[in-house]
Amino acid sequence: MDTKWLQGRLIVLDGPDGCGKSTQVKMLCAWIARQGVEVRTFRDPGDTRIGEQVREILLSPAHEAMGTMTEFLLYMASRAQLWSEKIAPALAQGCCVVLDRWLSSTCAYQGHAGGFGVDRVLRVAQDTLERVWPDVTIILDVDTDTAAQRMDRELDRMELKGQAYHQKVRQGFLNLAQTQDRFVVVDATQPIDGVHKAVIQGVTGFY
Ligand code: TMP
């Protein structure tokens, strides 16, 4: 397979908490590297000095007073910094960039589950982000019961929002996948290798 098309591509893996995203990001990056293409991976929010501090503010359970507007603006701020400091330079060098979350999360969490409004998220994104959508978004879909079983650890402020909120998050991702182009939904309740295969199929399916 000619894999030149992977150069300069922006790929996002996203989904509800407990969907197994971090494992799949690592496996996808290893696969891209095996194709002979330089790959960079970043997590959103985070991965810049500013972004990691914003991440801490966002996820600390001590900040339970945080409203959806503040949450929304902080996620967008961290993302703007990640774009200019890390993503844009990596793409300009011809690397393939794999992101652990992106605007799709803001649509599902703040826009849909948080009641901020998905259209409103998209309007602000159009005005503030240099790049709104990646080349491909893979949504790792998981039901809330399976997800909760996988999160056998101390939970952060977002994870603590409860089952009803997280059910809406899942629906928010599924709605987005139906309304936006270049989205693929993968059943993330399968064994890890099966999910990985489906992720590769999702990524290669557009090229
Ligand atoms: P992570 O644990 O997958 O790195 O994500 C951090 C948390 O932030 C996770 O619960 C999802 C949430 N989140 C949002 O609510 N909005 C966003 O825009 C992003 C990127 C993440």
Kindly, what is the distance between the CA atoms of the first and last residues, rounded to a whole number of angstroms?
Answer: 11 Å
- The CATH superfamily is P-loop containing nucleotide triphosphate hydrolases
Largest sheet: 5 strands, parallel
* Portion in strands: 5-15%
Notes on the structure:
The relative contact order is 0.20. A 5-stranded parallel beta sheet has the order 2-3-1-4-5, sandwiched between helices. The chain has one domain (4-204): P-loop containing nucleotide triphosphate hydrolases (Rossmann fold, 3-Layer(aba) Sandwich), CATH 3.40.50.300. The model has no long low-confidence stretch (mean pLDDT 97). It has helices spanning 21-34, 49-59, 68-92, 103-113, 118-128, 144-150, 163-179, 192-204; strands spanning 10-14, 39-43, 96-100, 136-141, 183-187. The chain has 207 residues and is of the alpha/beta class. Residues 17, 43-45, 75, 101, 105-106, 109-110, 158-159 line the site of thymidine-5'-phosphate (TMP). Thymidine-5'-phosphate binds next to helix 4.
List keywords for this structure.
207 residues; alpha/beta; Rossmann fold; 5-stranded parallel beta sheet; 8 helices; 13% strand; globular; binds thymidine-5'-phosphate
Task: Give a short summary of the structure.
With 207 residues, the protein is of the alpha/beta class. The protein has helices at 21-34, 49-59, 68-92, 103-113, 118-128, 144-150, 163-179, 192-204, and strands at 10-14, 39-43, 96-100, 136-141, 183-187. 53% of the residues lie in helices and 13% in strands.
